[in-house]
Amino acid sequence: MREVLSELEQWTREGEDIALATVVETWGSSPRPLGSKMLVTRSGKMAGSVSNGCIEGAVFEEAQKVLKSGKPKVAAFGVADDVAFEVGLACGGHIEVFVERLQPAHKQLMAMLERNEAATLRTNLVTGEVSLAAGAPPGSELARRDGDWLVEPLRRPAHLVIVGAIHIAIPLHRLAKLMGYRVTVVDARSKFATKERFPDADELIVAWPDEAMAKLNLDNSTYVVILTHDPKFDLPALRSVLGKEVGYIGAIGSRKTNQNRFDALRAEGFSEEQLARVHGPIGLDLGGRGAEETALGILAEITATRFGGTGVSMREAKRPSLT
C-alpha cells in the first residue's frame, strides 16, 4: 500500500472515486509479487502497477466496471509469451487481481501508515470483506494467501540502526538508503558521527549506545548492526536490544570475539535463546574483505532475514511457490 500512498492521499482529498487492484495469485513468470497495488479513478487516473505494464490496460477496464457496479471481483489474466518478452519476462504466466472500491478500512490504513504505525490488512476475496488490525506479526513482510483471505502485514518502514560510525558504516548507510531504509547512526564519539561522513543518514545520535537505544522505537521493523568492536560500546548496545523484539541483531567481530561477548552476557543472566538471535560473525560470506563488500554482505544477511530468504545461491535455492 505504501507504494501508492501519496497518490491515494491526494486523490482522496480531491474526492476522486477510486478502485484498488491487488495481485492475489501468480503462476509462472510474474514481475510483481502478491500484494502489489494499482489505483484507478473513475476520471481515468492510474498509479502503481500489478504487472509492470503487460495487463495494466485490462485492469483499468475491470476497475471501471467495479466502480460502476460497486461489486468487487477477482480478474484472471494470462500473459502470452510475446507480450511477456516485451516487458522483460522470459516467458508468460498467469496473474489474478482482486479489484474493489476503496473502503473505509483502507482509509483507516492510510492514516496508520501516515503515522508510521504497523498494521495487518485482511481481505476476503469472495465476499470483499476487509478487516484491519493494529500491529504486524514477526516474520516475513510479504503478503500471503490464507484460504479465501489475502493477508498483508504492513510493518513500520524498515529502520536500520548502526552502532559505531566506523569506515564500514559509511557504505552500509548508503546501501541501506538505496534499499529504502530509514537510517540512524549512533556513536559516542562526535568526531566519527558527523554529517560529512554520513550525508545520507536520517538521524545521527552522539551518545552511548544504551542511552541512544532508550530514545528509539525498537520493534520488529528495526534492524540493529553493532560495528564498534569494543566491549565498552558493544555490551551496552547488546544489553539494550536483546530483550526487544527487533527484526535483526548483528555484531561485527570474529567467532572468538563474539564468544567472549556471549560469555559476559550469559554471566549477566541473558538466556541462550536471546544470545542465539545475534548474527555474529556478521553478514553473508561474499569473499571480499573491503568495506564495501563487508557492508554488502551485512545488508544481504539483513535482507535474507527480513524476507525469509536462505542466503544461498538462487541456483541452489528451493524457494516455496507463491501460489
Please write the string of helix (H) and strand (E) elements.
HEEEHEHEHEEEEEHEEHEHEHHEH
- For the biggest β-sheet, the strand order reads 12-11-10-13-14-15
Overall number of domains = 2
The percent range for helix content is 25-40%
Describe the main β-sheet briefly: 6 strands, parallel
Instruction: Evaluate the radius of gyration.
Output: 22 Å
Q: Beta-strand level of the residues, as a percent range?
A: 15-25%
Multimer state: single chain
Poorly predicted regions: 87-91
Overall 3D shape: elongated
| Count of helical regions | 10
Structural class: alpha/beta
- Give the integer mean of the pLDDT values: 90
Total E-strand runs: 15
First-last Cα distance? 20 Å
How would you characterize the overall build of this protein?
- With 323 residues, this protein is of the alpha/beta class.
- The protein has helices at residues 5-13, 56-69, 81-86, 104-114, 169-178, 209-213, 231-241, 255-267, 272-275, 291-307, and strands spanning 18-28, 37-41, 46-48, 73-79, 93-101, 119-124, 130-134, 144-146, 149-154, 159-163, 182-186, 203-205, 222-226, 248-251, 278-279.
- A 6-stranded parallel β-sheet has the order 12-11-10-13-14-15, with helices on both faces. A 5-stranded antiparallel β-sheet has the order 3-2-1-5-4. The protein has a 4-stranded antiparallel β-sheet with strand order 7-6-9-8, with helices on one face.
- Strand 2 and strand 3 (46-48) form a beta hairpin.
Question: What are the main properties of this structure?
Answer:
single chain; 323 residues; alpha/beta; Rossmann fold; 2 domains; six-stranded parallel sheet; five-stranded antiparallel sheet; 15 strands; 31% helix; elongated
